[in-house]
Amino acid sequence: MTSEGLPDQAILPKVDDRGIPLSDIASWLGTELQGDGSTLILRLNTLQDAGVGELAFLANKSYRSQLATTQASALILSPADAENFDGNALIHANPYVCYARVTALFDAAPRPAAGVHATAVIDASAQIAPSASVGPHVVIGARVTIGERVRIGAGSSIGDDSAVGDDTNIAANVSIYHGVSIGKQGTVHSGSVLGADGFGFANEAGQWVKIHQLGGVEIGDRVEIGSCTTIDRGALGNTVIEDGVILDNHVQIAHNVRLGENTAMAAYSGIAGSTTVGKNCIFAGQAGAVGHVTICDNVQAMARCTLSKSVTEPGSYSSGLLMSETPKWRKNAVRFGQLNDMALRLKKLEVFVDEKLDESLSDAKREANKE
Amino acid sequence: MTSEGLPDQAILPKVDDRGIPLSDIASWLGTELQGDGSTLILRLNTLQDAGVGELAFLANKSYRSQLATTQASALILSPADAENFDGNALIHANPYVCYARVTALFDAAPRPAAGVHATAVIDASAQIAPSASVGPHVVIGARVTIGERVRIGAGSSIGDDSAVGDDTNIAANVSIYHGVSIGKQGTVHSGSVLGADGFGFANEAGQWVKIHQLGGVEIGDRVEIGSCTTIDRGALGNTVIEDGVILDNHVQIAHNVRLGENTAMAAYSGIAGSTTVGKNCIFAGQAGAVGHVTICDNVQAMARCTLSKSVTEPGSYSSGLLMSETPKWRKNAVRFGQLNDMALRLKKLEVFVDEKLDESLSDAKREANKE
Amino acid sequence: MTSEGLPDQAILPKVDDRGIPLSDIASWLGTELQGDGSTLILRLNTLQDAGVGELAFLANKSYRSQLATTQASALILSPADAENFDGNALIHANPYVCYARVTALFDAAPRPAAGVHATAVIDASAQIAPSASVGPHVVIGARVTIGERVRIGAGSSIGDDSAVGDDTNIAANVSIYHGVSIGKQGTVHSGSVLGADGFGFANEAGQWVKIHQLGGVEIGDRVEIGSCTTIDRGALGNTVIEDGVILDNHVQIAHNVRLGENTAMAAYSGIAGSTTVGKNCIFAGQAGAVGHVTICDNVQAMARCTLSKSVTEPGSYSSGLLMSETPKWRKNAVRFGQLNDMALRLKKLEVFVDEKLDESLSDAKREANKE
Q: For chain A, which domains are there?
């Protein structure tokens, strides 16, 4: 199952009240089937909790012992695990990826019908594909283009000259400003704001003079944007999110940032202005990067780590502290304020022991030897 | 005043332009009254700033000296403090709790009339209690149930198969997805998002494959949710917020988290996926817990503390650093990068002093004694 | 160009498809012009990227070498730099401030026409200036006043007794509760929430009793509020944001905070309840202050710094750690947990070396001398 040979997301096999035969799932996925293909699957569940009519998966070796006891009607297994399992199975080199694909079949999220709701306010110059669904109270500005099968949830607003590509799903109460381009097959969750002004001001004798933000936002294909996430428009030129990027909730992307393909950012992670982040980077919760730096591909910033300068070597970076009981922590935290002093004292002691002490000892020996 | 004997929140005594007699407040609360019950109370205020027509409270001993000088028309006092005060007073074992209850009488927040606004878009299969108030431009999906006296603010959206319990207050521009159940007497402030997809993806050769989030969200009774707070739906099974939980603004609850009863989380605190948090825990600002761990009851995570593993002992936990002037901080922060090295050097020095030095001194003595 | 002699923001010279003559910009700004005033300017751009029809600026000396190679049609330069430049230039003592002002001319953000959209729901008692623009699906409560030339974006909601001053711009999907007053010439970006309840609860035997938040929010003139930012209403009395404050995205201002004039707060920075912050302070990303403290004027809190007590001296404050490679970081982070122990051991070693060692050496010498 390569990128070239993906199951067709547009034509999902239907799961009705009786479930779906395991063989239908296998043929849609293009995976090998072991056991009884007529087994009806109603739901997905964990290996431990799954029962009759449920499909589970084994992706983490530490749960392998549950293979003997699971009550699931079928499993998603690696070829090696399948050899040691007698029951029904879908066999896939990467069971976790296979599980991810199968979730699409069991997603009960409402699929609104195509068409524009009577309460939506659409500028006459906007172009909306006939297969798109535009929900109640949506507002769409001048010259906006909305692609095929796009869904726009209730109360969302899209500013002039913006565009949403085919199959992208905009949830309710999303705010998209003017001049924001979103690619295909993306998702934007509720409460997120794309294209608000970057935080740019010049200081004149203490007062802030606003720098109007003249750029826009360009978002690639297959980009997932969580809820309450903000991507600011560029000051001059665009803020750019490349294909395949995934952003969790409460993420902040400042003006003129560029995020490379397939980079992932967890909740509260943020990138300050004009920073370029490479491909396949991972930012854990509350991690981030300062402005005007360049982060190379394949960097992982651990929780609460600030990438405070450019990073040229792939790998994992950290800052922050480990937790401890507060009374113990307090003693150590106070000592942090003395750390430079401690370092200087340690050095002094080493010098003293190395030199002065040797000398003293020599003196002592000399004295001793004198006799 | 126990949980069993609460003042009736549904039937609040009315405060008109002349105020409300102190005795009416006392009888509603069921508290003892000292002084003139006909005193009219117009407002609440602090002990220091209160004047004529105002009711204040003493909850913090360090303000006790203000009892002699306060201009308040009446006070809420503990029995002990009331003995030393000649003026009008409501006497309560816990004056701060008593003050909290009295605030309900003076809340000027608009109480919209029952009924569904003409601009709201309600699915025909939704069940809305006659006493509920549904504001302008609200959108309510299929099979949604809305309880008695519920208020739903302008522009909020509630997805299919969700439910809101009696007396819960949903503010304006709240986004509630499908399959989200909210209990009674709760509050959800503006900009919050309940039931958006959890952040789940499988990585296949660098590309992220979305794991559709098939679970929902279950929220108990008396839960307060601040503004711009996000609670994601479960991947398999539900994300669960138990009764009495209070969440501040910008809180993030990831998929399949369970928050125990009466746990409180301050702004920007977050819990990563599949973590279970016990009852009566407190997370200070920007505190949090990593995913897939279990936090026992009665844990306090101080500001910016990450609970980075399971916690089995109640108590207070910290990480993070104390503030200092930046030039001083910089020196110490640089030394942090040398801390392991310092520890090794310290150990070496100790060993040297303990052993080698003893030996050298002995040698010196031996040499000396040889003579 | 002093505060007294600002260019008139209300009457911007028009930039048409052919651009705007440089001399028109110069006269609007009141700056000195060098070179050909008839040069048409279509856009702004960076010194490095600007080409024909584009105006650039030099504010940072490190780019001065680009003066020789820039293809821009005109530059904004300091008097000193203008002397060494042959081309067209606007000459200004502070080129960055001058650039900031000029951005207003090139801002393509839509300017909706005056008037109230047919789908907006306006209480009969609200007063809306004729020059204001109220967008689709906006909801405005009782006794609200909306000033001249105010713009209110689609889906925003303004509660009873609130007010928006002249020339303030409220974007789409902003939630403003009752009793919130916003001054003139401000901006509130999408997803932000002004006047939600402060996070106030009294604890009674483990259960949280809500403290109704009876105060409001007062916001001065020229205040910029980013997206997904929250400013809570006061418990008693108001939360106050003074003139000229600028707040980025995801900022949290708790109840009864006062922010002094021209203070700036970057993304995720937050101030806990009842804290007073002085004028011209700067909070970097994820910086903040604890509750019930006072921060003097001209304080800078660096990224992730918590001002954990009152600050009485202007200057820069920090906490947090520098980044390092994770394996190296882990070793140092573990040592942090031993820091107090290390400090005690270091002290012991110093004492030993100072005293006991001296003594031992003396003993050794004495022994030696005895012979």
A: 20-106 (3.40.1390.10), 115-317 (2.160.10.10), 326-370 (no CATH)
